[in-house]
Each structure stands twice: as structure tokens, then as C-alpha cells.
Design brief:
Elements (H helix, E strand, L loop, with lengths): L9 H8 L4 E3 H11 L5 H13 L3 E5 L2 E4 L17 H13 L5 E5 L14 E7 L4 H11 L4 E3 L3 H8 L4 E7 L6 E4 L2 E4 L1 H10 L10 H13 L4 H10 L3 H11 L11
Parallel strand pairs: 5-7, 6-7
Antiparallel strand pairs: 1-3, 2-3, 4-5, 8-9
Helix pairs in contact: 7-9
């Protein structure tokens, strides 16, 4: 089977999956096997490559693709974080001091892209293995004295953290947190960040209320977000039902009702 235009079955593809907006790799393989029962893995990979090149598909998570109507250019993008210099320096320190330690980090300043009122300060959220949190805290305190906080509660946030222009918040890493690797560095996926901001209202109380609605609506509008990834992680944090209720009752986001949650 050659992956030329006529054999990509673009019209049938969009009719089959456009309503849901997303499709799993296994469903795509089954779709093309209907037209070519002897479909090989090599041929299927060539089809996927051609579909992505023609912008009929966009990979948005492991084994999940967004569908575009008749190969139209996508209106959304994959989220790529932009790090401040201080965040880059922090990652470098962690890589040199704890080369084998699992960490994930992101910045609250990135949420300003989707907010009405811009945050007045920036917190670098650093997640690491539970057993290593205190060691990381002690190490970073030597360079960032007065700016590093371990598992802060709301009182600590209000009294000591929010007055600072920038701070580092260390917390334990949730297992199976969604992540992606870019240029050799590992970052949390946008789906994880949205769930964490939703769940950890004491830590992220400055981003609740109407601002939380704006964050969800605007991020969903601008970037590809995998509902499967979002709700799987929400399940890890035991807030799946609560998150669905929030999205459906408070926002204008139209969830894919056929998506397995």
C-alpha cells in the first residue's frame, strides 16, 4: 500500500474521527487495515508520517493524535514551555548535583498567558522523589537562601512566598505524572499542570476562581490537550469527577463525550 493522497482516505478519516477530534494510534491502525488487510507496521508508519507532513494529524500525547479536517493547517499548537534564566540555572544545578534524581519542574509565571490579571511574582514548582525532597531543599538553600520552601502550606504561601518576586517550592513527585522530553530535558505536560493547579488550591490559591476558568478555557483553545492524559492523571489525584463537573459547569470547553476517562 502506497501512502499517496488517494490511498490516505482523508475524507473517510475525517468523517470517522473529526467529531471526537482525537484518535488513538490503535484506532488509526484498525482504520487503515479496513482498506488494506495485509497492512504492515512499516507501511502504517509511512502513512502516519505522510499524514503528519500533510497536517492531517498532530501528535498530542503518546499514541494519541488530533485530527484536522481535510488536512487543514492546525489551529492549535503543542505546548512548549519557555523557561526563565533562573529556571534554566536551577535545572543545571540539579543535573550537576543530583544527576540520577527524578525531577519535574515548571513555573507559575507561564499561567499568565491564559489569565486576565497577570501574576505579580513567579514560583518555580520543583517536584522530586519523596525521599530526596529534604536533601534537595538543603542543597538549594545554600545558593537560594530565603527563596526555597519545602512542602509549603497556605499560611506559608501568604506570609513568606507571595511577597517574593521569585521562589522555589519543593514538593514530592506524584507517580505516573504526565511528562515530555525536549532537548534532553524532561518537563511536565500541560495536562499535569492544569490538574495540579485545580487540585492544590492552597498552594495555587492566587489562580482559583474566575482565573482558573480563564486558564482552562484559554489553554484548551490554544493548545492540544489530551483528555485521556488529563483525566488519567486526575484519577491519580482522585479528582476525576470533580474536574469533569468543573469543566462542564464553569467553562465553555466542550469535552469529547466519547473519550474514555
Amino acid at each position: 500500500m502506497k501512502s499517496d493522497v488517494s490511498q490516505l482516505h482523508l475524507n473517510e478519516l475525517t468523517k470517522a474521527f473529526l467529531v471526537s477530534g482525537q484518535v488513538q494510534k490503535s484506532a488509526l491502525r484498525s482504520f487503515y487495515a479496513r482498506f488494506e488487510p495485509t497492512l504492515t507496521e512499516q507501511t502504517f508508519r509511512r502513512i502516519l508520517y505522510t499524514l503528519e507532513k500533510r497536517q492531517a494529524l498532530t501528535p498530542i500525547a503518546a499514541g494519541i493524535y488530533a485530527i484536522h479536517e481535510n488536512g487543514a493547517p492546525p489551529s492549535k499548537k503543542n505546548y512548549v514551555p519557555v523557561l526563565t534564566q533562573s529556571h534554566q540555572a536551577l535545572k543545571q544545578i540539579l543535573q550537576e548535583t543530583f544527576p540520577y534524581l527524578e525531577t519535574l519542574s515548571w513555573e507559575t509565571g507561564m499561567l499568565g498567558e491564559w489569565m486576565i490579571h497577570q501574576p505579580a511574582n513567579n514560583q518555580i514548582i520543583l517536584e522530586t522523589e519523596r525521599e530526596a525532597c529534604e536533601s534537595v531543599f538543603n542543597t538549594l538553600q545554600q545558593k537560594y537562601s530565603g527563596q526555597v520552601f519545602l512542602e509549603p502550606d497556605r499560611a506559608m504561601m501568604e506570609r513568606y512566598i507571595l511577597p517574593l518576586p521569585e521562589s522555589i517550592l519543593i514538593t514530592h513527585l506524584i507517580t505516573q505524572s504526565p511528562r515530555k522530553k525536549m532537548q534532553g530535558l524532561v518537563f511536565p505536560r500541560l495536562e499535569k499542570i492544569l490538574v495540579d493547579v485545580f487540585v492544590d488550591s492552597d498552594k495555587f490559591f492566587a489562580f482559583q476562581g474566575e482565573e482558573l476558568v480563564h486558564i482552562f478555557e484559554n489553554s484548551f483553545a490554544a493548545y492540544w490537550i489530551s483528555e485521556k492524559t488529563l483525566f488519567r492523571y486526575a484519577g491519580r489525584r482522585k479528582v476525576t469527577t470533580k474536574l469533569i463537573e468543573f469543566i462542564e459547569s464553569r467553562t465553555d470547553i466542550k469535552l469529547n463525550q466519547t473519550q474514555e476517562r
